[in-house]
Amino acid sequence: MPDPYKGIEICKDLRIKYKDVFNLKKLYELQREWLKEHEWTDMEGKGDNWEVLFLQFDEADGAKEIHYWWRVQKKPYKTPLFRFIMDIDNHIIGLKDTEVMQEGMKLKVQKGETEFKISARVEIDPEKKIRGSNIVNKFFNLYRFRWYKEELQVTQKRDLYREVNELVAITKKFLKMKNFLPDQDMHQFFPSEAYPSYTHPKKPRLA
Fold first, then answer.
1. Which of 5, 79, 88, 152 is the most buried (most CB within 10 A)?
2. Which among 11, 194, 4 has a CA at the least distance from the CA of 120?
3. Predicted local confidence at residue 200, as pLDDT
């Protein structure tokens, strides 16, 4: 018999990889703001203290290597029966400060390679309020796999998948990367601050 409390994995190590010039601080703030606006919290459910790891190493050439991990949760529809979980890991290498000219202004930004990994899942009965006797387990097994199958397999998976895609989309939009999903509105306070090489002005073609 399947484990009635086993969660449903939506994605595993979904990757966003970018190597060029960008504003790391603004990207960091954009993603934090998006999580707060969409009611994600830390694993204690008490706020935005979701950063469980931050490591920085200074390399011999002056570049930096950075790791930071976020662990966030969300209770859809305020029900105790389900919980959305996202693990967001970022690994940055070769990070150096640099400057770019934008509309006549000199901006301090960074150049390097960043790789995000996002994993997401739906947890069942995270507060352990339903599990108990064997009779309860059997009843909940029927509840999950028969009576509530459509809600579990369709609605919850769809909603979490949509949120993961939106986070990926706004990140790619900030970094001016190609995105094959419908366009997502960028938070008005966080315009793109990525400066990939392919956006540099082209030389005029000679007649």
1. 88
2. 11
3. 44
* Cβ neighbourhood burial of 39 (10 Å; 0-12, 13-18, 19+): exposed
Q: How far from 199 is each of 29, 35, 45, 171, 175, CA to CA, in Å?
A: 23, 29, 41, 17, 11
Q: In what order do the strands lie in the sheet containing 8-22?
A: 8-22, 105-124, 82-102, 64-74, 51-58
* 27, burial (CB in 10 Å: exposed 0-12, middle 13-18, buried 19+): buried
Structure confidence at residue 58 (pLDDT): 95
CA atoms within 13 A on the CB side of 54: 4
**Which segments of the chain are extended strands (E)?**
8-22, 51-58, 64-74, 82-102, 105-124
pTM for this structure? Answer: 0.78
Confidence band of 3 (pLDDT split at 50, 70, 90) = low
Query: Rounded to an integer, what distance in angstroms lies between the CA atom of residue 119 and that of residue 43?
Result: 15
Q: Which residues pair with 73 in a beta bridge?
A: 41, 85
